[in-house]
Amino acid sequence: MASVLKVIQLKYQKLSKSEKRVADYLLEHYSHVSNMDIRELAEKAAVSVATVTRFSHKVGMASFVELKISLRDAVKKDERPDDVLYQVQQTYNEVLIATSTLQTIENYQRVVDRLNQAKSISIFCIGSSGLSGEEFKLRLRRMGKSVDTFLDAHSMVLRASTLTSEDVVIAISASGQTLEIVEAAKLAHKNNAAIVSLTNYEKTALTTLSAEVIYTHHVDGLLKDRVLNTQLSVIYVIDSLTALLMEDEENALNYHKTLDMLSSYLSEKKIVHALNV
After folding, report:
1. Closest by Cα among 71, 65, 67, 55 to 20
2. What CATH number matches the domain at 3-74, 1.10.10.60, 1.10.10.10, 3.30.470.10, 3.30.70.270?
3. In what residue span(s) does the HTH rpiR-type domain sit (predicted)?
4. Residues 166-208 pLDDT 10s
5. Taking Cα atoms as reference points, which of 163, 236, 173, 230 lies closest to residue 205?
6. Where are the domains of the chain?
């Protein structure tokens, strides 16, 4: 996707209700806008012409004409075959490329520095994000980090109430507005813990509390009427953070040490089981 579509995604939560209608229409039909004038787009999105103009300015365009040009550049020749596997592959490629361009290596490195220096790491996540959080927890534990996941409002608040400035919270919320996570993050922030958020949008309740933000890509609607793993972008971020963390000699040593001990333990269990059969 072209940069203007990413800008629309990042600024979405700060748009007015009518401006969101313009955004929703463009994100779904951006390939058709190059043939429209401003009045036609306003009619399609059920808003006024003035709203389209305000929207254009809010996403960094000088005018609707400039917006059209940027959207035209985003259009790809959609000549994909009617092949479900190919469509899934292309969608995954799109998500990964878009996620990779939403932040720089410096953003990642600042997060890695905080994780390496943290006394403890708490991962706040709910629903499908919990699976991603659990995966990251296992990786961090293998590196010798003191880390745990908190998957419901009660446990998040209890944990947040005991945090200090030496601790880091990783908050995973696509919308940046998940009530349980935001409320727990507020308490952690009050206790001076550093908040690192993984989210789709800027300037949300969560990002305003965050010391560091890593943006993930909004995947809804990329494959209409098909089930798509909404955590793909989050997993990309976790893989990137893991790769950078493993560049630290101590992290890498601990990681391989724990894997070796686990392998040895499992081998011993197999031997004992075989003797008892």
Report:
1. 55
2. 1.10.10.10
3. 2-78
4. 999 999 998 899 999 999 999 999 999 999 999 988 889 999 9
5. 173
6. 3-74, 98-245
What integer best gives the mean pLDDT of the chain?
86
Query: Are 262 and 125 in contact, with CB atoms under 8 Å apart?
Result: no
3-state SS record for the chain: CCHHHHHHHHHHHHCCHHHHHHHHHHHHHHHHHHHCCHHHHHHHHCCCHHHHHHHHHHCCCCCHHHHHHHHHHHCCCCCCCCCHHHHHHHHHHHHHHHHHCCCCHHHHHHHHHHHHHCCEEEEECCCCHHHHHHHHHHHHHHCCCCEEEECCHHHHHHHHCCCCCCEEEEEECCCCCCHHHHHHHHHHHHCCCEEEEEECCCCCCCHHHCCEEEECCCCCCCCCCCCCCCCHHHHHHHHHHHHHHCCCHHHHHHHHHHHHHHHHHHHHHHHHHHHHC
Task: State the Cα–Cα distance between residues 182 and 177, nearest whole angstrom.
Answer: 7
**How far apart (Å, rounded) are the C-alpha atoms in residues 72 and 52?**
17
Q: Tell me the two tokens of residue 35.
A: 């043939």
Contact 175, 13 (CB under 8 A): yes
Q: CA 176, CA 129: separation in Å to the nearest integer?
A: 12
Q: Which tokens is 62 given?
A: 């000088």
CATH says 98-245 is which class? alpha beta
210-263 pLDDT tens trace: 999 999 887 655 545 556 677 889 999 999 999 999 999 999 999 999 888 888
